[in-house]
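Late entry, written up from scratch paper. The run itself happened at the end of the previous shift, but nothing got recorded in the book at the time, so transcribing now.
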Amino acid sequence: MAGKNKDKNKDKDKMPLKIKLKGWWEGYDQNELEKKFKSQLKEDVVDAEPVAEPEPEVDPATLIDEAGWGEARININQYIWGEGFCGPGGTEQIITMTKLLALDKKMSMLEIGSGLGGKARALAENYGVWVTGLEASEKLTEKGNDISLVKGMAKKVNIVQTDFEEEQKFDHNFDRIFSKEALFTVQDKEKLLRSVYAATKPDGLALFTDYVLGSEGSVMNEQFKDWREKETIRPYCQTEREYKEVIEAVGFKTRVNEDITPQYIELISNAWKGSTDVVKQLLKEENSREMIDLLLAEAEFWTRRVTLLKSGQLKVWRVLGYKQDSRSRMMSDW
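Output as recorded:
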């Protein structure tokens, strides 16, 4: 009997998942968590029976494929960010930020870094624009096109898997270009953007948001080095000045060039506030332990990014460019 009570008390002393998530999000290590939340460790924060730990414990990394994405990670991200999304910014935010592009149903748009296609479908539904998406991940491309097919949007939104380091070729030109946190994973940005610029119609607009270095010295920062090594796809960040220069070097003229880091941090924080609700959902699934492990790994992934953003080592930048019609330029020279 004494042994059973001892095991029961041991279960009560396990750190609740809610506290683990909150702690990681606020930057505490395991020892700090135990000290800071010692008085809360016996609370049942998920209103559910403790989940038995499998032996051996599943390493979340084994659930992710070579491209950084797998079915389990895709599902976890949709729990966090919403159906069809695998990063900050849902339908409402995407529609708001793309007002700068003045989209309409007569236009075609090229999206660089489509993910699961949630952004493209939101714009196609709201504005009627026709979207061709480019995505580096084969898994995201396949899943994104499946979602478009189920929603009856396969003709409006088509995602193509590609290697961004290779020269891109298009069978038609586009009125608008959109890229949301995608170019930072591309080493030769200028080569990619030159092919994109060539496929942009005269007077076309291009909207880019991306991670940039807080300063030239950021690359020497130990936190930055740790983040760079632990990202699923190696980042190739530039300063915001260098980023703008590359966009202008290929031919785009810039109209907007601004820091949107505070708004971006808020988007991430708001999404992760619902993490305990996600845990409750995952506890109902057959492979709940593996999925919760993956959720915690994703929490650490985004904690590293937010830590750099808050410290100023990393920023999120927005640039709006346009392709001037050569005929208009000649007339303006008269």
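The chain has two domains: 1-50, 71-268+308-332.
(Scratch paper discarded after transcription.)
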